[in-house]
């Protein structure tokens, strides 16, 4: 590749969060008019690195240079105004507002009538249409976001970046919710952007896309940079090996549980959303830890939420102990002794302002209530105290606010919530996300002990070592489909990655 001007340079960036060193002295160079792919397993530090460049995170160590000058963005607004834009993996448009209003939110053009300022909708729609024409986006600027496809919303975010005069656009898993046709459209836009001198950082797990769209590839692992290579010197196999080629640390208890007979069978689960899970079938044995692996957009969480009754299912059947059961709500799932520990502990797990007791008994309020709906407070207290002790939850007492606990202890409270319902099957979605190493081992030990007691566990995890170290069997998903099962010695990094990215 011909020499091009360096537009963005990160030097020796380090960033830590409680219990986790997310980045350890990472350097990165981006050249004008190129697509630079950033790759690595989930948790490798890719997004964190770019958030440091963009102003979302303040690095603990290191320097950021933009157009040859040292910069320090205190917030994303400063990054945007300087010419760096980041399109996040999860798009959050104002759904009942037009795409134009979303693009110009917070800076809509104004006009004055009789000395009073009003939004100049005509100019806003004209400016939006001009951006759309430049990017060849076929959409009416007046259309509400809720009516638009993921592809158009994604392109709308690019248009928003251009409106700020972006010289660098960071795209975090931009095709995770796009169809193949929509991905082609996005790539066409990216080619036009780079032809105009705009530099793209492309964060993705999709190896075929990386090889197709990028000029350079940087691979990260465990918060460190492994290396940077010209894309045309790489193959799918080389990328996989460099992404997963690390020595496994023995941070997991020995899996000495013995899975028994099949307790759960899911047949042909299909979502009404064609972009979500399709025709998924699997079994779960008594006393088994079944890991579910896959990359971003694999629809693992969606499948488990459907099993728990909080997401619609177009077709499919569930059998427990050989008998067909119907689950149309979380209440149905709980009645069938199934529990779900959600992925987002803070968003959908804990009630921050409530006590440990309130958070623990939440899923069993009906059982703790009499016919008049009055709670048996003595039973609530006894149940909570039992699990505080059994799970070694570090707290002054049951009345402490859960928000005052560490992430690991919060997670143990949420586990206690479901164990209090006496489940046969426990679905754990990213059970150790955001907690320190010591707390992780405690969670692993709890999981193993539950399995040895005959509880069946489904564990969704994006951490490769966790999948390997804590699964009797692994089911891998890719883009809404089950692509394979691994067991015993076959559960290795490369095989999981191959099935998760359709390699080999």
Given as residue ranges, the uncertain stretches (5+ residues, pLDDT < 50) are none
Number of domains: 3
Q: What is the number of helical segments per DSSP (H or I, 4+ residues)?
A: 17
Number of strands: 22
Strand order of the largest sheet: 6-9-10-3-11-12
Shape from CA axes?
A: globular
CATH superfamily of the largest domain: P-loop containing nucleotide triphosphate hydrolases
The SS-based structural class is alpha/beta
The major β-sheet equals: 6 strands, mixed
Q: What proportion strand? A: 25-35%
Mean pLDDT: 87
CATH architecture of the largest domain: 3-Layer(aba) Sandwich
Task: Return the CATH topology of the largest domain.
Answer: Rossmann fold
- Indicate the radius of gyration in whole angstroms: 25 Å
Structure description:
The strands form 5 sheets. The chain has a 6-stranded mixed sheet, with helices on both faces. It has a 6-stranded mixed sheet with strand order 18-19-20-15-21-22, sandwiched between helices. The protein has 3 domains: 239 residues, P-loop containing nucleotide triphosphate hydrolases (Rossmann fold); 134 residues, P-loop containing nucleotide triphosphate hydrolases (Rossmann fold, 3-Layer(aba) Sandwich), CATH 3.40.50.300; 80 residues, no CATH class. 33% of the residues lie in helices and 26% in strands. The two termini are 28 Å apart. 44% of the residues are buried. The chain is built from 17 helices and 22 strands. A hairpin with a 2-residue loop joins strand 11 and strand 12. The protein is an alpha/beta fold. The longest helix has 16 residues.
């Amino acid at each position: 590749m011909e020499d091009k001007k360096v537009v963005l340079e990160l030097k020796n960036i380090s960033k830590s969060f409680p219990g986790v060193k997310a980045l350890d002295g990472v350097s990165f160079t981006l050249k004008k008019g190129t697509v630079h792919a950033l790759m690595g397993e989930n948790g490798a530090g890719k997004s964190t690195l770019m958030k440091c460049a963009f102003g979302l995170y303040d690095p603990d160590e290191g320097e950021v240079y933009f157009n040859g000058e040292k910069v320090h963005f205190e917030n994303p607004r400063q990054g945007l105004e300087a010419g760096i834009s980041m399109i996040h993996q999860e798009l959050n448009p104002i759904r009942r507002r037009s795409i134009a209003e979303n693009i110009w939110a917070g800076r809509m053009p104004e006009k004055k009538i009789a000395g009073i300022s009003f939004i100049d909708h005509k100019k806003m729609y004209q400016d939006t249409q001009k951006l759309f024409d430049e990017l060849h986006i076929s959409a009416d600027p007046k259309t509400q976001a809720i009516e638009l496809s993921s592809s158009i919303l994604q392109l709308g975010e690019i248009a928003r970046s251009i409106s700020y005069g972006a010289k660098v656009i960071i795209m975090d898993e931009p095709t995770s919710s796009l169809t193949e046709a929509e991905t082609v459209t996005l790539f066409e836009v990216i080619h036009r952007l780079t032809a105009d001198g705009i530099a793209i950082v492309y964060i993705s797990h999709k190896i075929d896309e990386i090889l197709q769209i990028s000029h350079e590839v940087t691979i990260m692992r465990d918060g460190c940079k492994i290396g940077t290579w010209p894309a045309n010197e790489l193959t799918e196999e080389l990328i996989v090996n460099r992404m997963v080629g690390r020595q496994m640390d023995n941070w997991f208890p020995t899996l000495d549980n013995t899975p028994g007979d099949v307790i759960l069978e899911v047949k042909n689960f299909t979502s009404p959303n064609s972009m979500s899970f399709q025709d998924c079938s699997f079994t779960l044995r008594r006393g088994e830890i079944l890991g579910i692996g896959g990359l971003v957009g694999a629809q693992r969480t969606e499948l488990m939420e459907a099993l728990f009754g909080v997401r619609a299912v177009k077709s499919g059947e569930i059998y427990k102990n050989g008998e067909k059961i119907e689950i149309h709500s979380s209440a149905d799932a709980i009645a069938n002794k199934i529990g779900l520990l959600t992925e987002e502990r803070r968003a959908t797990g804990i009630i921050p302002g409530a006590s440990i007791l309130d958070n623990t008994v939440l899923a069993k309020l009906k059982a703790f209530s009499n016919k008049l709906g009055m709670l048996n407070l003595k039973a609530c207290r006894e149940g909570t105290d039992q699990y505080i002790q059994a799970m070694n939850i570090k707290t002054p007492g049951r009345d402490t606010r859960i928000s005052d606990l560490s992430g690991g202890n919060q997670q143990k409270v949420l586990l206690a919530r479901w164990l209090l319902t006496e489940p046969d099957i426990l679905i754990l979605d990213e059970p150790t996300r955001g907690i320190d190493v010591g707390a992780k081992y405690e969670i692993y030990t709890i999981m193993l002990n539950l399995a040895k007691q005959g509880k069946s566990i489904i564990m969704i995890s994006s951490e490769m070592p966790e999948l390997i170290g804590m699964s009797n069997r692994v089911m891998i998903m890719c883009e809404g489909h089950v692509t394979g099962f691994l067991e015993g010695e076959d559960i290795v990094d490369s095989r999981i990655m191959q099935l998760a990215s359709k390699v080999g």
